[in-house]
Amino acid sequence: MELWQRLAAIKASRVEPALRLVLIMLAEHMAPDRLTCWQAVETIADETGYCERQTRDILNELEARGLIRRWWGEHKCRD
User: Which residues pair with 70 in a beta bridge?
Assistant: First the structure.
């Protein structure tokens, strides 16, 4: 899936704006050949303007909704 397709799907989703913004940041950092991204929480927080605690809360919510999956702090965005 191309980046523009990922972004269009995220933008068309009905998730709250804060969650959507974090999903967009994750999508922009995804490896082009795989659905993985390895960005630090600090990087996502910097890019979104959220504090690290709020960013972690959003990532937890995204995982609880099944929109991302984490391994040892990293995230994998689902197709």
Answer: 75
How distant, in Å, are the alpha carbons of 5, 28, 58, 59 from that of 44? 21, 11, 11, 10
pTM of the model: 0.81
Q: How far is CA 77 from CA 61, 72, in A?
A: 13, 15
Residue 24 near residue 10 (C-beta atoms within 8 A): yes
Which parts of 1-79 fold into alpha helices (H)?
3-12, 17-28, 41-48, 52-64
Q: Rounded to whole angstroms, how far apart are CA atoms 62 and 15?
A: 9
pLDDT tens digits, residue range 17-58? 999 999 999 998 887 777 788 889 999 999 999 999 999 999
